[in-house]
Every structure is written in structure tokens, then in C-alpha cells.
Amino acid sequence: MKIGVIGWELPPAFSGGLGIHTINLFSIISKFAEVEVYIPKMSMLYPSYPFKVKLVPLTYNGMKGNYELQVPDFNQAVMEYNQKVVDAFDADGTSVIHCHDWITFNAGIELKERYGIPLVVTVHSTEIDRSGNFYPQKWIMDIEREGMRHADHIIAVSDYTRRLVIDTYGISPDKIATIHNGLGKHFYLLPPKNYDLSGNVLYFGRVTMQKGPKFFIEAAKKVADKIHDVRFIVAGTGEQVEELKFLARTLSIERNVIFTGFVGLSEAIRYYRTSDVFVLPAVSEPFGITVLEAMSSGTPAIISTTTGVGEALKNVLKTDFWDTDLIADYIIGTLKFRSLRSTLGAVGQIEAKRFTWEESALETMEVYSSL
Amino acid sequence: MKNVVFYFEVHQPRRLRTYRLNEIGRNHDYFWESKNKEIFQRAADRCYIPTTRLFIKKGIRASFSLSGTFIEQALEYRPEVIEVFKEYFSSGLGELIAETYYHSLASIWDRDEFKEQVREQERVLRDIFKIKPVTFRNTELIYSDTISDYVSSLGYRNILAEGTEQLISAHSPNFVYRSPSKLNLFLRNFRLSDDISFRFSNWGWNEYPLTADKYARWIDDSPGDLANLFMDYETFGEHQVAETGIFGFLERLPIELKERNIKMLTVNEAAEMFEKREVISIKELISWADTNRDTSPWLGNDMQKEAFSEMQKLRDNGNRSLWRHLQTSDIVYYMSTGTSPDQIVHEYFNPYKSPYYAFLSYMSILEDFRREYVKNST
Question: In this complex, do B306 and A339 lie within 8 Å of one another by their Cβ atoms?
């Protein structure tokens, strides 16, 4: 069996979770099937990967900082990439085409029609999620819907996303499977955490509407009114950073809020481990791997009910993303009670480790064989 | 064996509602009235009323403990439940057993507090049922030599405990023993008890379906003086719903027992009838709960320990009754994170669905209570 994977990025470069997902999942699948992963040609790559990587050169593609892809016009690059993947695709012996998100869907549809090879698409996030349900772009949703329609099978990263695909995109539930993501290997090795109070409350993720950092700042204000000496750490980059700095000043908590800028993996682990609680008030988060990372670091997590991974977790505190009173209550609770931190942290640490990429790979293989 | 002793725990906690931080100092109403009422009414309809009527009709002899918090809620939400129990006890079929009024953990932290809560329960049993109990069953069968000492000094004759795996390896549960404090000690036969309370409707069990005939035969075939069948009363109609056929089983059982000359006895009748075996000393706390059969369902994790110790610190307060309602063991049980097989049982009973929300609400309630009722607090 040969799987033709149309991807977008691979570590060490990444903008979101897509590259991490691709490398983790297909390193395992490649032990059982031949895997060819297509990505745009980029400067920052490892010398080799556990599967065959097929680089598709684009007219212009650079790197921002060390790890982030940069193209002058993202949408144009997507269009160019999809066209060039179709041209470069090696259909010989390929039994499944596996596409990841709208940025690869057009190529998948075209290839399926051209060669009659079954198409699997994984929905990591939708335009509804990324826009925070705030002016989603119709033309992107159209591509998503077309990809989902043409797909022989759809993999959603959570039941939350599966429902969205059914309800918003009108896709038949029969061909959608939910397969949760796994946890990176680094996180299995972390020892139990120390639960002495550090006074750090962590937001970690892209600083963008979808992830709800604004609600984090608003909750921070409510916490700061009651407890002094708390540091609210906003770790990550994104288009809302300046807006949130302004908001923190307006709320007079700028001295309590720290914006770290881009954070890599080892630094992220350090932040998880030195924070009393992790907060993800995402407006719409298909999965939320950072929740598992924080938990497996032994750190209690407060997450929104619109965070997909929450559906499979018992040992987290859940709130509506907009309910900053309750988010603040939960933050205060974790800061105030050591026993809550240690119980939620230690039990959560075990729970998070149940999410393995081996399991995800196995379930993905089952989808392939069902075609 | 030619004798069985049925004992049923009848208890409903006054559950606490979700209580938010911003209510501290402003709202002193802690109880989840609507939930408590709903659960009580449902249990009354499914279990308390129909099962007790069936006991009366079929002449089933049994021993019962009715916690104070259960009696309170029965009087408030469904007085008919008290009436049917009165009818049962006045028929002479049953023995009423004592415990702490609040179904609390007082026995494991303070002797005086424990004693006062037992006395309070005795007053209620006297006022309502005109009965002075001689048998004691501590909260969820929590037991140790120390506890049996306390109970003995309060004038009791008999006490119930769990026949844990470890105990029964040396002492068959099918005899009456003595505690070092000279109480008659009854050990629960967990295998035969759980056959009804847990396994009755389990399709995967190789003895499914359990018939009254088969069950009576098992009892008949067992060696020893008596089978101690101790379980939650809600087994009938609530944990095992009517559709499982549990009531048909119960109706048939007295007939099957009678055919084999097996007698149903109350605890005290059995205590008077049988020769007591050896003295059994139990130093560590045991209980009938979870797989560990210890106190870990209530005090297993850090949250439970912190909550329990915070409650104790509020002892000198201006509202003893309310403070004691905050001691009901179910409250800390809802904070258990347990081990996975037990977690399923815990979730079944947990009105908050999460141990963490239970903890946060409780700690806020304690804080409010401290400000409102504890002198010299700031």
C-alpha cells in the first residue's frame, strides 16, 4: 500500500500543529505502508525523514525568523502549490491520497478525478474555527466543502469538529471518523511537577481571535483585582499581540502581563512546568494539543467547552470561552488551593498520556483499509 | 446455612449546590434544593415506597439504618416514605439500626463529635419511630477497633463491618464474632451481597440471570451460621431498576428461602441466637466502599484532605447543625478522583460530574460559613 500525503509543512518549520501532526502520524504509518509526503520546498528542513518527502518548488517561499514560513501572498501560494502538486504527483501504485485541510484540498480533488484514487481528507481546522466564527471567508469554506464532498472518507480531529463538518458543511455523518491527535514523545518523560505556588498563569498558543487570548486578559484583570503578584504570561505570537498589550494597559494590568513572543518546544515545556495553571479560552479549537502538553507537564488546565480535546478529558476545568468570571474563579481556585493544583495536575498528567500517536496511526490505517 | 441477615443502608445526603466565589459573604444558602428534591422523589417512587410495601406484604425481615439527613428530607419532600417505614417497623418485621445523624466521617477524627451525632440520631429515631436501637452501623461500614470502642461506650450491643478479603481469609463472614470492645461483630458477605447489588443485571456475568431459586440454593449450600447480606436499599428499583426484574426476584425470594427452611433474622435476633466466635481485632480503618475497602474514597486525594481539615477548623461556630450538614461524607466522596473502575461508580453518584467543581464549591461554602458563623474570624 502506498499513501500519497499532500501536506503543507514539516518540522522544524511550523506555523500551527499541521507539521507536527504530519511527522508524528506518518512516521508510524510509514512502518506499515509506503508514504510519500508532498510539501512546498522550503529552506529549513531536517536532512531526512522517516518517509519519502517530495518537495514542490514555489515561485517564492521564505522563512520568517527561524521557524515560520513566509510567503508574500498566502492565498496565491496555496493556489500555486495545489497546481504544482498535481503536476508533480506520482500516481503509480498509490492506493490512497490523504489531504490535510483546505490548503491541499484542490489538489486532492483534481488527483482523485484524474487517477480515480480514493481520497481521504483530515480536517484539522475549518474556516469557522480560524475566523473565530467572525466573518469566515466564503471562498475558503467553498473549497473546504468541495474537498469534504469529494472525499471518500473524512477524518475529524474531534467530535466537536465532526459535528461542525456535519452541521455547517452539510456532510453525511456516515463518512466521517473522529481520530484524536497524540501527544509528542517529549511529554511522556516529564517527572511529577512541584506544586509550590509560582504565581504564573499561562496562555500558550497563537495570539489570534480563534484561541481567545482576549478572554484570558479579561479574566486576568478579574483575578488581579483579588490577588496581587500574579504574572499572566501570554506565550506565542499572532496578529492580536498589539491589541492585547493595549487592552492590558487599558485595564491597568500591564505590569502583570508578560508577552513572550515566539516560543519553541523546549521553552514551551519550561513555561508549562513553571506555571500554576494553563488557560485556553478558545472560541473554536478543533483539538488543542497544548492542553495535553500542559497536562502531561503536570499543570492544571482551564479550557473552553469549545475546545475539541475537552470532550475526551475528565481532569480539566471547563468553561464557556466568554465566561471570564468563571475563568477567573477557576484561576483563583487553582492559585489559592495547593491541593487542587496537585490533584488536578497529577491526575491530569496521567490522563493526558493516554493520547498516543500510535493509537491515531492505527485508527487512520483502519480508515485506509475501509476504502 | 439456614439463616440470612438482611441489612439495608437508607441514606440521602443534602447535596450542596454549585457555589461561586462572588457569593461568599452574600449568600448563605448552600443546599441544592431542586436536585435533592428531584433525587429524593425519584428514589421514593422507584425504591423506598414500593420496596418497603413489598417487604410488608411478603413479610421480609430485615434491619435498616435511616440516616438523619434521609429522614429530614423524607419529612420535607415525601412524608409518605416515613409512614411506610413506620408501618414496617410497627409490624415487628424489622430492626432499626443507629449511625451518625449526618452519615459523617466524625468517627475517624473526633470522639466527642461522633458521640453527639450518634445521640442526635438516637433522638430522631426515638421521636419518630419510638425505637431505641441496640445495633450500630457506621457510615459506609467504616470500622476499626477504635470506632467499635466508641460505639461500645455509647451502650450498643452489635456492630456491622465489611468482611474484607483479608479478614475472611482467616474468619468466615458466616459467623458472629466479637470485637475487643465486646460488641457482637457481623461481617458482610460481600460475594453474596454483591451478587444482588452489583451483578444482578450484569449480562456478562456467567450466572446471569440470577433467580431467587438459584440464590436461595447458594445460601443453603454455604457453610456457617448465617449470610450477612448488607447493601444500599436503593439497590431495589434505583441501582437495579424495575425493568431488570429485581422486584420479581425479591417477591419470590422469601418463598424460596422458606422452602429450604432458611430463616430471615434481624441483626439483634442473630446476635442472640448464635454462639459468638473469636475476638477479631481490626486496627486499620476498613469500609465497604470501592475496591480498596478503606477510607480512600473520602480522603484519598489532596483536595479531600484539605477540604476535610478546613471543615474541622470551623468547629467553634454559631451554627452547629449547618456545620454538621457540611460533614456528610458524600460531600468529600464527590471530590474523589479514585482509580478508574471505581471512578465509574463515583461518577454515577456525583451530581457535579467533576471532583474539582465539587471541591471548589465546598471550599467557597466553608469560607462563607467561616465569615458568617465563626467568631473572631476576619
Answer: yes
Cβ separation B363–A337 shorter than 8 A: yes
Q: Are A258 and A287 contained in the same domain?
A: yes
- Looking at the fold, whether A101 and A225 belong to one and the same domain comes out as no
Position B342 scores a pLDDT of 64
Q: Which of A315, A332, A342 sits opposite B302 (nearest CB)?
A: A342
pLDDT of residue B291: 83
User: What is the tally of structural domains in chain A?
Assistant: 2
Q: Is B140 a catalytic residue?
A: yes
Q: Whole-prediction pTM value?
A: 0.92
The whole-number pLDDT of residue A66 equals 52
If you count DSSP H runs as helices and E runs as strands, how many of each does chain B have, helices first?
Answer: 17, 11
Q: How many CB atoms lie within 10 A of CB B14?
A: 22
Q: How far is CA B200 from its chain centroid?
A: 20
Contact state of B337 with A333 under an 8 Å Cβ cutoff:
no
| Nearest residue on chain A to B353, alpha-carbon basis | A314
Provide the shortest C-alpha distance from residue B283 to chain A (in Å): 28
Q: Give yes or no: residues A85 and A33 share one domain.
A: yes
Query: Is residue A241 located within the same domain as residue A146?
Result: no
DSSP E strand boundaries for chain A: 2-6, 34-40, 52-56, 62-64, 68-70, 94-100, 119-123, 153-156, 176-178, 200-204, 231-235, 257-261, 277-280, 301-304, 317-319
Length of chain A in terms of residues written: 371
pLDDT tens sequence across A212-248: 999 999 999 999 999 999 999 999 999 999 999 999 9
Same domain for A61 and A206? no
Q: Could you tell me how many CB contacts below 8 A there are between chain A and chain B?
A: 48
The CATH number, out of the four listed (3.90.850.10, 3.30.1330.10, 1.10.760.10, 3.20.110.20), of the domain defined by the range B3-273:
3.20.110.20
Disruptive mutation site among B299, B304, B308, B337 for chain A (greatest number of A CBs within 10 Å)? B337
The three cell numbers of residue A108 are 486532492
User: In 3-state terms, what secondary structure has residue A154?
Assistant: strand
Give the domain CATH number at A58: 3.40.50.2000
A282 in Cβ contact with A212 (< 8 Å) = yes
Task: Indicate the range of A66-80, A190-204, B244-258 predicted with least confidence.
Answer: A66-80
Span A92-144, pLDDT tens digits: 999 999 999 999 999 999 999 999 999 999 999 999 998 877 789 999 999 99
Least reliable range by pLDDT among A88-92, A291-295, B233-237, B347-351: B347-351
Cell of residue B207, nine digits: 450466572
Look up the domain containing A129 and give its range. 2-181+356-370
pLDDT of A90 above 80: yes
| Same domain flag for A362 and A290 | no
Instruction: Supply the ipTM of this predicted assembly.
Output: 0.91
Q: Answer yes or no: do A296 and A244 share one domain.
A: yes
Most distant pair of Cα atoms in chain A: their distance: 65
A chain contacts of residue B356, beta-carbon cutoff 8 Å:
315, 317, 340, 343-344
Identify the residue among B18, B19, B20, B21 best suited for mutation to test binding to A, counting A beta carbons within 10 A and taking the highest: B21
Selecting among B140, B238, B256, B367, the annotated active-site residue is B140
Angstroms from B294 CA to nearest CA on chain A: 19
Same domain, A154 and A278: no
Nearest CA in chain A to B301: A343
